[in-house]
């Protein structure tokens, strides 16, 4: 099936209507205080529930009638058709001629036979790989799988980069409270030797299992780190007397301490990993959409198959909600349109994600790849230039840490920065400081920040506190700084799956409006190609050095002069 060319959203009557609405709001004056005062039901009209997550959009720079305009624009760009195309395996990633089927990774087993794509029963194949991963995870967790000396595995070390690292490490950190088998995880991604040095520090090679995550088993950073890890393992095992250094014993050790997430079984075997211990995924799973595929093998080991299934159920709940809920009531669609509203009409360049849960401290970093690699594009899916601004710079830090760092800019700076505040009613670690529930103290900050950003503080209010007149301007808060509040019951495998799927689909909605192929990432390729050309010039190849630009030559000469060999 051919991909239809993108609709230029900016040329539709629906975009014009939204522009007119925006202009009217500017003429009236955007004033959240007044809007709340004049509409007692504003919060009800702008609050939604999806799965077990609650969303309050009332502190955004919209009126309830804005939602209908958002829904109209979503219809105008045929979001429903493109969503159906994605879910059914049409090759909407047209620059790579691939289907986009991360939603198939979390479909239930009863969907087997219903989604045949390019001759492949996608759900059946996914469930078969999951069954193999779960069996492996159970063996490691129970102690049936041991290292070469017969000791139980107590640490899994995931070696990958990009989507093969950001997702697993974020989920591991988020769900640490659910680790129940005496197994911890570490994650190596950076080719900087300092990363592997620190991540292997203090580990016992006899109880360490490495998971090498590379679909092609050719990723430069991952394979370099994998070889270093193999050297570290064999050296440590020999020093402990667990192997004698013979090729036979070394080979046995590698097969007991390394598994792979890859489809290139030939290269897996060349490395020394038994191909039966390789778990694959498919070209219709993009790296940044793969944490719920075999890329999450480390998570299945640490948390167990049952928890991993709960994680998948959370994804699927949002997948179904997004696909079946009318646009004007569909909070996933509305949040995507909100981002378009701020990016294209208010010209906001960045978007903050502020989780009030320390376990989510890597969530903003995860979203950076998901959103910026997906929608950081300047051409549409047919190769034509975009017609408006695309993408946002996603960033953030957890909770009160951010308050004492960059909130100043959000509150009183000259840039409009929409922000998502995420929190949960319950914590796995309740505690009290005297009579004060500390989690409630924490949530007090979560609630106070969105209130302060929305409603601010006037000069008269500052004066009423007895502030000296010359200091009054510095203590005024303009307000009308937009926020979305996301509230959940607890951070569980299910709710984390919901959160990830939420942002996956928000990204998709934006990409559809902008006419982007949100599933390729050609922007990462040029630097990789140039690195291969430049690396030989750094230390020994003067001919390669001569081919570089003047700046690169100067930097390499500085390196040669200062490197202590």
Protein architecture, described:
InterPro entries: G6P_Isomerase, G6P_Isomerase_C, Phosphoglucose_isomerase_CS, SIS_dom_sf, SIS_PGI_1, SIS_PGI_2. It contains 23 helices and 15 strands. It is of the alpha/beta class. It folds into three domains: 272 residues, Rossmann fold (3-Layer(aba) Sandwich); 204 residues, 3-Layer(aba) Sandwich (Rossmann fold); 38 residues. It starts with 12 loop residues before the first helix and ends with a helix.
CATH superfamily of the largest domain: Glucose-6-phosphate isomerase like protein, domain 1
* Beta-strand percentage range: 5-15%
- Radius of gyration equals 26 Å
The structure class reads alpha/beta
> How many separate domains make up the residues?
3
N- and C-termini, Cα separation: 58 Å
The CATH topology of the largest domain turns out to be Rossmann fold
User: Mean of the pLDDT scores?
Assistant: 96
CATH class of the largest domain: Alpha Beta
Query: How many DSSP helices?
Result: 23
What CATH architecture label of the largest domain applies? 3-Layer(aba) Sandwich
Helix content: 40-55%
Q: How would a textbook summarize the main sheet?
A: 6 strands, mixed
Query: Uncertain segments of ≥5 residues (pLDDT<50)?
Result: none
General shape: globular
């Amino acid at each position: 099936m051919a991909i239809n060319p993108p609709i230029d959203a900016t040329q539709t009557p629906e975009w014009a209507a939204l522009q007119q609405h925006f202009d009217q709001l500017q003429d009236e004056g955007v004033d959240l205080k007044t809007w709340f005062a004049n509409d007692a039901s504003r919060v009800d009209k702008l609050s939604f529930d999806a799965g077990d997550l609650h969303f309050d959009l009332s502190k955004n720079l919209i009126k309830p009638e804005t939602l209908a305009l958002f829904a109209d624009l979503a219809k105008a760009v045929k979001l429903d058709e493109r969503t159906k195309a994605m879910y059914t395996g049409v090759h909407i990633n047209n620059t790579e001629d691939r289907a986009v089927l991360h939603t198939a990774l979390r479909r239930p087993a009863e969907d087997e036979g219903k989604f045949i794509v390019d001759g492949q029963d996608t759900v059946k194949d996914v469930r078969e790989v999951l069954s193999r991963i779960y069996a492996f995870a159970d063996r490691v967790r129970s102690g049936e799988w041991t290292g070469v000396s017969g000791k139980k595995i107590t640490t899994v070390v995931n070696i990958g980069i990009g989507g093969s690292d950001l997702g697993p490490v974020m989920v591991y950190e988020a769900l640490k409270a659910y680790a129940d088998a005496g197994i911890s995880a570490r994650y190596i991604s950076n080719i900087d030797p300092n990363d592997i040095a620190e991540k292997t520090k203090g580990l016992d090679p006899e109880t360490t299992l490495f998971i090498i995550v590379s679909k092609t088993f050719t990723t430069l950073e991952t394979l370099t780190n994998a070889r270093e890890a193999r050297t570290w393992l064999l050296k440590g095992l020999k020093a402990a007397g667990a192997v004698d250094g013979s090729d036979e014993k070394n080979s046995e050790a590698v097969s007991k301490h390394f598994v792979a997430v890859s489809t290139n079984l030939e290269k897996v075997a060349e490395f020394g990993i038994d191909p039966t211990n390789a778990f694959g995924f498919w070209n219709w799973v993009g790296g940044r959409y793969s944490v719920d595929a075999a890329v999450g093998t480390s998570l299945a080991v640490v948390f167990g198959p049952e928890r991993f299934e709960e994680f998948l159920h959370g994804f699927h709940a949002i997948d179904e909600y997004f696909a079946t809920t009318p646009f004007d009531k569909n909070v996933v669609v509305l949040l995507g349109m909100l981002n378009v509203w701020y990016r294209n009409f208010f010209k906001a360049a960045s978007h903050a994600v502020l989780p009030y849960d320390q376990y989510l401290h890597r969530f903003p970093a995860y979203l950076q790849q998901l959103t910026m690699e997906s929608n950081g594009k300047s051409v549409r899916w047919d190769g034509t230039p975009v017609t408006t601004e695309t993408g946002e710079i996603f960033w953030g830090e957890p909770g009160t840490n951010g308050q004492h760092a960059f909130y100043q800019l959000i509150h009183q700076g000259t840039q409009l920065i929409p922000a998502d505040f995420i929190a949960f009613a319950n914590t796995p670690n309740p505690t009290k400081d005297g009579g004060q529930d500390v989690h409630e103290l924490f949530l007090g900050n979560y609630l106070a920040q969105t209130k302060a950003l929305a409603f601010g503080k006037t000069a008269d209010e500052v004066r009423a506190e007895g502030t000296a007149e010359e200091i009054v301007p510095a203590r005024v808060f303009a307000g009308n700084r937009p926020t979305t509040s996301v509230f959940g019951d607890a951070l569980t495998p299910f709710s984390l799956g919901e959160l990830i799927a939420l942002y996956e689909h928000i990204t998709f909605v934006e990409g559809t409006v902008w006419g982007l192929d949100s599933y390729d990432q050609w922007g990462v390729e040029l630097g990789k190609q140039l690195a291969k050309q430049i690396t030989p010039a750094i230390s020994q190849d003067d001919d390669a050095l001569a081919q570089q630009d003047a700046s690169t030559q100067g930097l390499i000469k500085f390196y040669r002069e200062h490197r202590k060999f």
